[in-house]
């Protein structure tokens, strides 16, 4: 490879890495902004309804502007079943994770949610897809140890069991949801799956908000603005994540995305004045270590060579 090609490749990798970092920071901003909007008196379902509506409008417009080919024999992204599966899964995960913010600091929620790669390892092992080798067992022990340290540390005495259960359930549901998205994306463009998630989520949250009578119960402009801002950040996250993933591949992308819980922690400190205990930091580092371990490719077992071949 010539020096010019190496420089171009390095610049492309750097750009893709920065795009994934931007995506992670956008996603990591959702929890603190939700806490502030709810603090202004806006209901969770209303916040999320306007978030996903904003995101849906932006992603549908972007997909229309970009133009995506229709494949024959493949159901379009806007069919009711696709919207229900994609939007329903995302709405369930978002609801559980954001409900946990009523009882737990944003940093704790973010770190605990990031145990989902460990649950993926467990699920794939139980289904016989991949075995639990030494690396995965170590990662699982690290993740569970991180949870135990967060919940059991003296500084975590005030952690609510309902909050911990809610966010861990969200992580487990996300671990199940990932292969579902993979199935949807096999024959569809990534932007089509993103639009299905946003539009389906908007429809479900809007229905919930209409039933509870909170959709248009907007206390002030700040609450509504923060809800719409979340939608903008969500749309940006989808686009930048997919662009970075195309260059970096899944392993590098997953490793780079681990900046998200640390970004959420910093926003919790700055915006919400939430203290971060030692248990949260140590447990969070353990969970991130588990995530990094799970990105290592499995080592192929080579047959032992005879002593004659070594001579």
Overview of the structural elements:
- By secondary structure, this protein is an all-alpha fold.
- It has one domain (12-297).
- It is 76% helix and 0% strand.
- The protein has helices spanning 3-28, 30-39, 44-66, 80-99, 106-113, 116-126, 134-152, 161-185, 190-212, 221-256, 259-271, 278-294, 307-310.
- 44% of the residues are buried.
Number of strands: 0
Shape: globular
The major pleated sheet works out as: none
Cα distance spanning the termini: 36 Å
Q: Give the % helix.
A: over 70%
Strand content: under 5%
Task: Count the DSSP helices.
Answer: 13
Low-confidence stretches: 301-311
Rg (CA only): 21 Å
What does the average pLDDT come to? Answer: 83
Structural class: mainly alpha
Instruction: Please tell me the total number of domains.
Output: 1
Order of helices and strands: HHHHHHHHHHHHH
What distinguishing features does this structure have?
311 residues; mainly alpha; disordered C terminus; 13 helices
Tell me the layout of helices and strands:
Layout: H1 3-28, H2 30-39, H3 44-66, H4 80-99, H5 106-113, H6 116-126, H7 134-152, H8 161-185, H9 190-212, H10 221-256, H11 259-271, H12 278-294, H13 307-310
Helix pairs in contact: 1-10, 1-11, 2-10, 2-11, 3-9, 3-10, 4-8, 4-9, 5-8, 5-11, 5-12, 6-7, 6-8, 7-12, 9-10
């Amino acid at each position: 490879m010539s020096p010019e090609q190496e420089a171009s490749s390095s610049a492309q990798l750097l750009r893709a890495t920065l795009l994934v970092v931007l995506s992670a920071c956008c996603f990591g901003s959702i929890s603190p902004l939700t806490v502030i909007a709810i603090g202004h008196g806006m209901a969770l379902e209303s916040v999320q309804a306007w978030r996903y509506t904003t995101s849906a409008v932006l992603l549908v417009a972007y997909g229309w502007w970009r133009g995506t080919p229709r494949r024959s024999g493949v159901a379009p992204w806007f069919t009711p079943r696709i919207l229900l599966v994609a939007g329903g899964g995302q709405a369930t995960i978002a609801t559980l994770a954001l409900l946990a913010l009523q009882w737990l600091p944003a940093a704790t929620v973010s770190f605990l949610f990031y145990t989902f790669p460990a649950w993926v390892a467990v699920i794939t092992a139980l289904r016989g897809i991949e075995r639990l080798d030494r690396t995965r067992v170590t990662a699982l022990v690290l993740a569970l140890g991180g949870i135990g340290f967060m919940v059991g540390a003296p500084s975590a005495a005030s952690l609510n069991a309902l909050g911990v259960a809610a966010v861990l359930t969200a992580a487990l549901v996300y671990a199940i949801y990932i292969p579902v998205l993979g199935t949807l994306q096999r024959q569809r463009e990534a932007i089509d799956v993103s639009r299905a998630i946003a539009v389906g989520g908007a429809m479900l949250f809007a229905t919930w908000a209409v039933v509870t009578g909170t959709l248009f119960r907007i206390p002030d402009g700040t609450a509504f603005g923060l809800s719409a801002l979340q939608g903008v950040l969500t749309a940006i996250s989808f686009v930048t994540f997919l662009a970075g993933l195309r260059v970096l591949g899944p392993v590098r992308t997953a490793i780079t995305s681990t900046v998200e819980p640390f970004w959420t922690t910093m926003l919790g400190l700055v915006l919400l004045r939430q203290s971060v205990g030692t248990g949260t930091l140590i447990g969070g580092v353990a969970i991130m270590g588990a995530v990094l371990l799970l990105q290592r490719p499995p080592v192929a077992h080579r047959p032992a060579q005879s002593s004659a071949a070594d001579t």
